[in-house]
Amino acid sequence: MVYILACLAIGLPLVSAVAFPGAVGFGSVATGGSTPFIVTNLADSGTGTLRDAVSASGRNITFAVSGYIVLSSALSLSSSTTINGQTAPSPGIGVMGREISASGKSNIVVRNLRIRQGNLDPDTGKSAFNMGKATNVILDHCSIAYGVFDSIDAVGAVNVTVSNSIIALPIGQQFGAHLETGPATWYRNLWVSAHNRQPLTKANTQYVNNVVYNYQAAYTVANTGGLFSHDLIGNYFIAGPSTTSPSDDWFQMNENQKAFASGNLLDSNRDGVLNGAAANSIGSAVVLASPWNSASTGLATLTAAQAFTSVLANAGAAPRDQVDASVVASVQSLGRSGAIITNQASTGLSNDGYGTL
């Protein structure tokens, strides 16, 4: 009932079912695909590959193989596509070396996929996942690392959810995510070691139970002239070795913004102990007495401290690989390790920093 009332309040279409059991937020309206397609090999192209699978709309994609797919060019998705990375045998499925693009597409569902762009991509203007001008998109339990332009580029995107995901170690611009238009939901994500944009959001936004570690600027609006509303509930910000100003947890929140901020914590002392204090001061934004979207309260089932425990245990693609294990370990140091990087090889992990599946 809360979801229905929220949809009516903001003009969203009502749907009889969400993208998958447990899907939340604005992107949960994504219908994905229904025609079965099984990925049977890890080649970049050809019959039975992921590129073959996403070349036609309406497909529901599962995996009979595990490992990395090394892309030689951007992977362009078709509309009405579901990618079920959780169906891959252990240790799971990932793509590396180029961008995945859902630009201009609609009804995209991506689950349990490792997306690792890195400097194998010669195009420094590409992002790890691009959903610019897309409609109805949900990324859930994905692991995105080594984004070159942004980890996630969503300029002009409508009805987006990014949930239960790890968004870490961007190189190049060192930015987490850039979303405009919206509305958008960022839910129970782990953001690690980015310079800025965690996310940059020029949209009406739900930002609930996220954990942000080793940031230079975290939740950002960038002094935009746009008039947007923000529900900021139960998030935990933790300073790390690269954090120059812990108070930039809410960054460039000007008087054009309206924000409801409740239950957020900031651990600024880098002492290896989780001991944050209240962090609900939101710059010069207009303070809302209640959430702008009534569904936000229903999403915020965890305190910030509970979110820290839950997100570190559950975010990202399962089972965790070398990259995600290293990222989570840096967060668990609570201020004592972690770095903002320019090249994935500097992590010292195998496979030139990409890790091995």
TrEMBL record:
Keywords, comma-separated and alphabetical: Glycoprotein, Lyase, Metal-binding, Signal
SUPFAM superfamilies: Pectin lyase-like (SSF51126)
Keyword Lyase on entry: yes
InterPro entries: Pectin_lyas_fold, Pectin_lyase_fold/virulence, Polysaccharide_Lyase_1
Origin organism lineage: Eukaryota, Fungi, Dikarya, Basidiomycota, Agaricomycotina
Regions crossing the membrane: none
Single GO molecular function: lyase activity
Official protein name in the record: Polysaccharide lyase family 1 protein
UniProt source species: Mycena belliarum
Signal peptide boundaries: 1-17
Keyword Lyase included in the entry's annotation: yes
